Amino acid sequence: MKIAIACHPTYGGSGVVAAELGMELARRGHEVHYVSYEPPFRVSRVMENIFFHDVEVLTYPLFRYPSYALPLAAKLTEVIRAHGVGIMHAHYAIPHSISAILAKQMCRACGVRIVTTLHGTDITLVGNDRSFYEITRFGIEESDAVTAVSEYLARETHKQFAVTRAISVVPNFVDTEIYAPERRSEALRRRFAAPNERLLVHISNFRRVKRVLDVVEVFARIARATPARLLMVGAGPDLAAAELRLAELGLKERASFVGPVADVAELLACGDLFLLPSESESFGLAALEAMACGVPVIGTRAGGLPELIQDGESGILAEIGAVEEMARRGLELLEDVESHRAMSRTARDVARRRFPIASVVDRYVALYEEVSAAGGAR
User: What's the mean pLDDT when you consider all of the chain?
Assistant: First the structure.
């Protein structure tokens, strides 16, 4: 098959899923065309069957606010015609599904079909804004197939947008050969923590919804009780606030900020706990990657996280903002070697059994084939 993938290329779960999906499809012999304003964060551009098409946004004095959706639609149309693409996979409803619908209209004779994957904030934040509500609903209704990364997100989409069409739940996935406890490097770990110190890890885009200050507060409470260090991976608007709060607590020297990292498997495998106290998570891909590395996750009962983590078995769940409980239970786990080892094994097992990359990508391929057969796509 020939598949065009439109996605946000920046650091975040939707971009990671789009990148990993496309690379796995390419390994299977499918031809994958990424269409975006820059290469997706994790994509290897030297892989066979991977192609990147740059979307150039016109700047012209007449256009006070240059549009991205229109040049994206034009580039998708160009790629469809030039390469015989049969499937457009839009990751995020806005603007990608809208651009894909416009491209499909411009290529009626091509028989191209649209699969839209909803990742979370395109529904719960962006799409729910009144100014985007109708166009988001239109993108969902006009796609040939729609998937959501969790049961929670599928329910929210039906509820908030009153859509009646079917939404298939295809969860996020992880390559458990890459994300594995065996990736742990003691030499790398020593860059962030001494052998007698516990290493707590957080990875995100540092937006407000991630509640990064709660990460700091949980770490501070644990660090008061046992030698510990904090590793912060990623970048975003709340990074400076986290650094400031650590300085106020006298803990800035015990935290490392390493910025966005493409291959986080080795960093995750070095951790003892992964902190994800988010206000909302449609799925929690970073948590799944930590679990695959055998690192217990402390998360919240928010969004799709309870579908991923079973409290007390494969991780720890608390209410949003319950930093005292998170710290207490995290410390208890760190101090109980056998419980920590058991939770680590269970977390790894859940990742391997329920979310392996091969079986989830199989589901996407089956969906592509289904919509292609229905529409006669190439």
Answer: 93
